[in-house]
Amino acid sequence: MFFSCYNTEQANTLLEVNASQKDKDFIMAVNWKKAEEYIKAGKGKLTPTKYAHNVYNESTHSATSEMKTQVLILDSKELKDICYMIPCPKSPHGCDVDPTGEYIVGSGKLAALIPVFSFDKMQNAIKNKQFEGEYDGIPVIKYEAALHGEVQKPGLGPLHTEFDGKGNAYTTFFVSSEVVKWDIKSLKVLDRVPTYYSVGHLCIPGGDSKKPFGKYLVAYNKITKDRYLPTGPELAQSAQIFDISGDKMQLILDFPTIGEPHYAQAAPADLIRNNGQLKFHKLEENKHPYVTKGEKEAKVTRQGNQVHVYMTSIRSHFAPDNIEGVKMGDVVYFHVTNLEQDWDVPHGFAVKGASNAELLIMPGETATLKWVPDRVGMFPMYCTDFCSALHQEMQGYVRVSPAGSSVPLTWSLGTNLPAATK
Fold it and tell me: Are 347 and 366 in contact (CB under 8 A)?
């Protein structure tokens, strides 16, 4: 694995100056197979820490969270053949490996060239101990020993690179606002196109995998300047799609997007269509502890000051849709089960005035919303995801009474309470 590393100066103030002084920083190469061997050999050390280990259960539609107090660490200073540093000019940002796994592209955002490293040459350098010293206890490989070559005068401010699977690389240049196409082996620049403006990330479908689908490229531009109306609350950003199937890149679409457009993945639709995405939860397999598998099972229960609402949703109503007997000081849990069994009919759920969140419940799924009423009154609850022509009518009401009141806990569906005025 390869990581870009900057601020080898170890500056901690005014980094725009103090972390940009050296001509080279590093690409760090991590031998994960060797790390795996050391772990199996018991070379790891348990170190005190604190983090949450979260596991989602598909059958209960809920997650468990366990706080961990230690983590296994491999010390790269002691185990010298896990990590290696490769010098890379200057303040490297992106670090990208071509589809063959042979070439590693380091994009130094303050450099006026692109260094391309060779995996085979790096392996030979390690074998022959072609080091120029250590950085913080990690061996530093000689720059020339791992270098395949440099792309000369490609542009200003290289950030990220992706590949088309045809031997070509495409690098974004933030300062000169362009995407540059170049040959991986010969390192010659083949084409360049302007972007509007200050492009950062880019995406070629499969462009960072072993089998790219090199037909289109999306440029994600970080600065818009005056290209779109300032409608607020934030300036729109821009993205551009290029056809890269020929020798020259051709702009085919230019469109606004939200900022900051960042890293993305794309793939041909046939890889995704009907490949697990048309998913719904079978009601008979729903093992959520608060599942309600039909309207006849809908109910409201009280446990001290906790009120549990076992609710269903289906086009176009909730059951129950009228609830009374909730009191100030209660904590209400709406456990909503979506009874739909069509994969594309989710339902939303919200309570007007709730200060925490709302739910999006997929077909056959059960989800829970916690609500703490903050005042006496009548509170609408409603579907927040368009589901049918009667989506607007998919609502109900919760009445909150004063603390200590004698209003009993009741719920209903299909009965006007009180009767409608004639």
Answer: no
CA 280 to chain centre: 22
Q: What is the pLDDT of residue 417?
A: 64
Half-sphere exposure of 341 (CA within 13 A, CB side): 7
Between CA 15 and CA 23 the distance in angstroms is 15
Measured distance CA(420)–CA(242) in Å, rounded: 61
Q: Residue 232's pLDDT is what?
A: 73
Cross-strand bridge partners of residue 307: 302, 332
Structure tokens at 31: 């031998």
Burial class (CB in 10 A: 0-12, 13-18, 19+), 64: exposed
Report the pLDDT value the prediction gives residue 350, as an integer from 0 to 100.
Answer: 97
> Which segments of the chain have a pLDDT < 70?
417-422
Rounded to 5 degrees, φ, ψ at 283 are -60, -40
Q: Give the distance from CA 344 to its chain's centroid.
A: 22
Give pLDDT tens digits for 309-334.
999 999 999 999 999 999 999 999 99
Q: With CA atoms as reference, report the closest residue to 90 among 107, 69, 65.
A: 107
- The DSSP letter of residue 35 is H
Cα separations in angstroms, 167 against 1, 106, 133, 183, 263: 21, 17, 34, 6, 22
What is the pLDDT at residue 234?
77
Q: What is the pLDDT of residue 269?
A: 86
Q: Give the pLDDT confidence score for residue 419 in this predicted structure.
A: 64
Q: What is the pLDDT of residue 260?
A: 78
Residue type, 207: G
Nearest alpha carbon to residue 234 among 248, 245, 224, 244 = 224
Give the per-residue pLDDT at 357: 85
E strands of 98-229, at which residues?
Answer: 103-108, 113-118, 131-135, 138-141, 147-152, 158-163, 168-173, 178-183, 189-194, 199-203, 216-221
Task: Judge residue 421's burial from the number of C-beta atoms within 10 Å of its C-beta, 0-12 exposed, 13-18 middle, 19 or more buried.
Answer: exposed
- As given in the structure block, the two tokens for residue 372 are 């703490």
Res 422: pLDDT: 60
Q: Is 1 helix (H, G, I), strand (E, B) or coil?
A: coil
